[in-house]
Amino acid sequence: MRALPKLLSKTRIMRGYKCVKNIYLNIHHPNLEAEITPDQQALFDQGNAVGEEARKFFSGGVLVDNKPWDFFGSLKKTRELLASKTPIIYEAAFEHQGCYARADIIKYSLDTQRWKIYEVKSSTKVKEEHLDDVGLQAWIIAKSGLPIEEINLVHLNPACRFPNLENLFEINDVTAQIRERYPSILPKVSQLFSTIKTDQVPVVNIGAHCLNPHECGFKEHCWKEKGVPAFSVLNLPKLNDKKWEYFNQGIISVDDARLTDLTPLQQRVVDVFKSGERFLDSKSIKAAIAHWKFPLVFLDFETMSPAIPRYIGTGPYMHVAFQFSVHVMTSKESEVTHHEFFHEFPTDPRPTLIPALLKACEGEGSIVSYYGRFETDRILEMAKSFSEYAEQLEALTQRIVDPLPVIRDFIYDKEFKGSFSLKAVVPALLGEDESYEGMKVANGGDAQRAYEEIINSKTTSERKNELLKASLEYCKKDTWVMVELVKWLFENSK
Ligand code: SF4
Predict the structure, then answer these.
(1) Ligand 1 site residues, Cβ closer than 6 angstroms
(2) Ligand 1: distance of its center to the CA of 211 in Å?
(3) Of 197, 216, 237, which residue constitutes the final position of a domain?
(4) What is the pLDDT of residues 385-424, one digit of tens each?
(5) Which of 25, 44, 197, 311 gives 348 a disulfide partner, CB atoms 3.0 to 4.6 angstroms apart?
(6) Which of helix, strand or coil describes residue 155?
């Protein structure tokens, strides 16, 4: 058991709000926690970028620029700024009874001689967990002695559209809701402090809280402790919260006889698990793909979805395609041809991507896209923003066909492990050679990060070329495996 730190940050205490075992393990057994993934790091970075952007709307403040881990230095600097009557402070630090919090923005009101707190969240709406988070923060600040007039949650406005960023943020006065929570905070925090002082790891069952709103870093440890196998009732598709009802009844293995009331798809997954035999309905596959028209055009986009919009007509988190790969297959026997596009510059990719896309997809054949809803939505969004291409772009969406529902409805292999994602389906049907293992850019998150680095003027040309090559390989792979998958469908639907 480790010695407790003198101060516990709000972020750490919030872990305990979510799960008391999480904060305990984080303090006493941090080695059991999974490392932060690049996707998680990107989320943190995005949150910081949104926080910095929000400061522009409260200009003229002074930043407590001590590092996040410098608690005592931050407290000292905040005291100095308060003593010198600084009217707006960014990242001010406060403490009360061992609890520590930093406020994104605080602003002094001359009228009331009290302070307004603005806590910035990078979401597009107020969420329940934000109220817990801001409640704890405001409680620490209030108890530390700062007179508070108002508590506000600031989040991104989904209606904002670039280039007008004046309404980028929405400010919600949550003072009344937060003050209602004050009485429950001290008992909750005291309970947490007494738990983390013991030498006993608290007993907490696993559940939906391990996955929502984010996957817990101790999941591997806790789930192993509970004996959850690699494939269990928790992996059954579309079982939602019911899976936890089964789990809590001790139904963990998918061959448990008590597993009833399953949908046909779930039942198929169970049957394949028991028999080990692949499910394949060739006749139905044949009927489902009979209307697909040659030349088949296999299409995949890579997109970015910045929190702070950058391009005309886009809002927070709207996807913007910066890359595509297209393979064209004229007939079942023909060689396939390849077309690709990558916008290497920080400007809006769409004005150059759209003509290249229309050219690559010309003709009347079906456009094959795995989870085609995504490509359809991106194309329709572009049609809306670039009216001169609207008709041609909308016509593309009429040609889109999707192998995903065909596979979901008529094929199941135990190696899918309950998932119908391309990355699960491809190695199971086409072999491990077609897996994404070892690729430098191996998923959508990697592709977005590579793109950001490529368009960054500080990136060396060597690094840029390396990333560009890896990004092109990844997107090409996505359409290439679709070609192979569709060939497989043809072969298995005779
Ligand atoms: S995995 Fe679940 S039970 Fe374990 S610490 Fe995390 S949230 Fe708690």
Answers:
(1) 19, 21-22, 25, 204, 206, 209-210, 216, 218-219, 222
(2) 9
(3) 197
(4) 999 999 999 999 999 999 999 999 999 999 999 999 998 9
(5) 311
(6) strand
Pick the atom of ligand 1 nearest to 206's CA.
3
pLDDT digits (tens, 9 = 90+) for 299-339: 999 999 999 999 999 999 999 999 999 999 998 888 899 99
Interval between CA 41 and ligand 1 midpoint (Å): 20
Q: Are residues 181 and 283 in the same domain?
A: no
Question: How many C-beta neighbours within 10 Å does residue 165 have?
Answer: 16
Domain count, the chain: 2
| DSSP character at residue 309 | -
Domain limits at 48?
Answer: 8-197
Q: Is residue 479 part of a domain?
A: yes
Contact 311, 164 (CB under 8 A): no
- CATH number, domain of 85, equals 3.90.320
How far is residue 43's CA from residue 83's CA, in Å, rounded to a whole number? 35
Distance (Å, whole) CA 236 – CA 221? 21
Long-range CB contact pairs, 283-290, < 8 A, 24+? 283/493, 284/409, 284/410, 285/406, 285/410, 285/411, 285/489, 285/492, 285/493, 286/493, 286/494, 288/405, 288/406, 288/409, 288/410, 289/401, 289/403, 289/406, 289/486, 289/489, 289/490, 289/493
Antiparallel, parallel or unpaired: β 169-173 and 62-63? unpaired
Which of 33, 205, 216 is the best mutation target for the ligand 1 pocket, counting ligand atoms within 8 Å of the beta carbon and taking the most? 216
Whose C-alpha lies nearest to ligand 1, atom 2?
A: 210
Residue type (1 letter), 109: S
Residue 223 lies in a domain: no
Please check whether residue 205 lies inside any domain of the structure: no
Do residues 432 and 321 share a domain? yes
Contacts of 117 (CB under 8 A, 6+ apart): 103, 105, 106, 134, 137, 138, 141, 148, 150, 151, 152
Question: The tokens of 332 are what?
Answer: 């079942």
Of 177, 197, 217, the residue that ends a domain is: 197
Cα-to-centroid distance, 247 and ligand 1 (Å): 15
Q: Flag whether 66 is in a domain.
A: yes
- Pull the structure tokens for residue 88: 């707006």
**178 shares its domain with 285:** no
Residues 7-28: what's their mean pLDDT? 95
CA nearest 87: which of 105, 108, 103, 102? 108
Give the H/E segment covering residue 337: strand 336-342
